[in-house]
Design a protein that fits this description.
Elements lengths: L24 E5 L4 H11 L5 E4 L8 H13 L3 E4 L1 H9 L3 H11 L3 E4 L10 H13 L3 E6 L10 E3 L2 E2 L1 H13 L5 E3 L1 H8 L7 H13 L4 E4 L7 H15 L5 E5 L3 H8 L14 H9 L20
Parallel strand pairs: 1-2, 1-10, 2-3, 3-4, 4-5, 5-8, 8-9, 9-10
Antiparallel strand pairs: 6-7
Helix pairs in contact: 3-4, 6-8, 9-10
Length: 306
Amino acid sequence: MDSRRFAPMLNLPDYPSKPRHSRRTMIFDRGWPSVFIEGVLESFAGAIDIAKISAWHLHQPESVVRRKIQMYKRFGVEAQCGGPVLELARLQGKEDQVIEYLQELGFDGLEISSESLPTQVDIELERRLAEKCLAMGFTIHGEVGKKFPEGDQVRKAAGVLDVEAAVANFQHYVDIGCEGSYFEGHLLRAMCGDMGQNESARQQLIDLADAVGIDNIIFEIPGTYLHYAGKRALQGLLVYLFGPNVNMGNVLIEEVAEAEEIRDGTFPTFGAPNGDHPWLASLSRTGTGTAEPQWWRGVEASVSVE
């Protein structure tokens, strides 16, 4: 298949090639038919790094899941099993059996987390699980934060991040060999607001990224809870804070196109500080056909233009 993009003569922001640690996109496969996913991959496989095959597949035939795994791998996308599957295995005493089963099915990656459990599990248990998974050839990812405040060790209050605790959690996952870990999307939503309107949360996220390293964080955006505009606003806020190569997770596969345009500043994001086509706006401000060095900061970027 011809890999040349549409309108190749038009300049867009720099785009790191795979395998990469920045601009990673994890999609949330919520059980769409394989034929639909294959069509999306034909258009956007270059934009997708990880496909989380979620617990929503527990009621699908094994043959369908096996076929999906092979399809993702054929398009150069990591097929990852979502966290709740392993969490169920832990609770039922079937951890080893399930890991071996996932390996036989062909999964590339696993999520090592306790996001769905009442509280986080002992870190030494996670370390031993990580060692086991790495020895079996899996790529592993952690997850920091929980959907609800109860039992969440990285919140000071319902919408307030304990930055020090979150940094320690991310560092734990780095130490046990995770290739990037997820920042729970509903924690992000609680901090920033459904339209990214809570400005007080922004410095907390910046402090977290400065301490952990932005490439070690994959920020989830709730895929199915938020309305369309809210998802775009939070994605736009992440680009505003960290640039187009920020890692994003839980992007619905049918919404990859919007996520790519938001990354490149060619899409309006109502609610984000830089919301009105920031790449195009920057080109207009310079009048040279070249954008400002930090064009994603909107009008603030003009300060750096000489």
